[in-house]
Specification:
The chain has 107 residues and is α+β, with helices and mostly antiparallel strands. The chain has a domain of 64 residues: Glucose Permease (Domain IIA) (Distorted Sandwich). 16% of the residues lie in helices and 17% in strands. It has a three-stranded antiparallel sheet, with no helix packed on it. It is globular.
Length: 107
């Protein structure tokens, strides 16, 4: 499957990186600077994961979007969490980007 690059406009779109299934919630907040090589968490098994792993998603979406939390495959998820997940995953507001294509553009 080839994932095309979504339209990019720095004024209205932002790059979002989602790290999921960590052992604990990351100690960083949106907008915090993270240095190259800095640990952001440990691989875990949260969110109904069958085995410990890191789920990494890179998407482009509306600038300034914030989700307090999101959940889907959890029967205790709140309506807001379910809505956030659907907005992120299936609404087309946040378009999936292949991170290797982004890295290939680095000098």
């Amino acid at each position: 499957m080839v994932i095309p690059d979504p339209p990019w406009n720095e004024a209205s779109r932002s790059l979002y990186i989602l790290y999921v299934h960590l052992q604990e919630r990351a100690a960083f907040q949106p907008g915090d600077s993270i240095q190259c090589g800095q640990a952001i968490g440990r691989i875990g098994q949260s969110g109904n994961a069958l085995n410990p792993h890191l789920h990494l998603e890179v998407r482009v979406g509306p600038a300034g979007a914030r989700f307090s939390s999101m959940a889907h495959y959890d029967n205790t998820a709140q309506p807001e969490e379910l809505g956030n997940y659907c907005t992120w995953r299936v609404s087309d507001l946040f378009q999936l980007v292949d991170p290797l294509r982004l890295l290939a553009q680095l000098p």
